[in-house]
Amino acid sequence: MEGRLIRLQPQQGEYLPLQLMLAGLKVLGSQLTHSQEYPIGRRYGFYADYLMRNITHFPASVLRPERRKRTYFNQVLARAEIDSGYRPARKLWQRVRNGHYLPSPELKLRVPDGDGQGRWLPLYELLAGRQILAGNAYLMVGESLRWIMKDDSEHDPLDFGLL
Predict the structure, then answer these.
(1) N or C: which end of the chain has fewer CB within 10 A?
(2) Is 140 helix (H, G, I), strand (E, B) or coil?
(3) 103-113, pLDDT tens digit by residue?
(4) Please, what is the angle between helix 15-24 and helix 70-79, to 10°?
């Protein structure tokens, strides 16, 4: 972030929320998921209760008991947002609404390549952000993503950007 590389280790507080966001980004706004538990809140972005919905199934070796609390998740989300005053803020996600976050548009992930070093690609390029926008059933998530990605182009809801 801001021209510097940050390596997140599994024991760091931001690691699990980021992994959960990356895993759920493509289906966040989809109405094709089987879960109706959080239909309204997830229309804007990720929030603590939504990210925590399956942590009861995680063993203590993966997530310590003190990190299973909603207050802990909210603290981690608040301190790692782009506009956080917390130091050192890792700036991993952008707050799009009170308590709702999406991964930062500046975030890059290292992907393996032929030379063994890997290359750094922008997150929304790597995860096909334009296709996520085109296939998004919830207008508000689409608007949040469009704002995050600084995408002001028109999107045909039937164009998935595959051609």
Answers:
(1) C
(2) helix
(3) 988 888 888 88
(4) 90
Place of tokens 């003190």: 66
Contact status, residue 123 vs residue 103, Cβ threshold 8 Å? yes
Q: Which two tokens stand for residue 18?
A: 């980021």
Neighbours of 38 (CB within 10 A): 14
119-125 LR contacts (CB < 8 Å, sep 24+) = 123/22, 124/148, 124/149
Burial 136-147 (b: 16+ CB within 10 A, else e): bebebbbbbbbe
Band of pLDDT at residue 159, cut at 50, 70 and 90: very low
Q: Supply the mean pLDDT for the chain.
A: 78
Asked if pLDDT for residue 37 goes beyond 60, the answer is no
Instruction: Tell which residue, 140, 123, 124, 141, has the closest CA to residue 27.
Output: 141
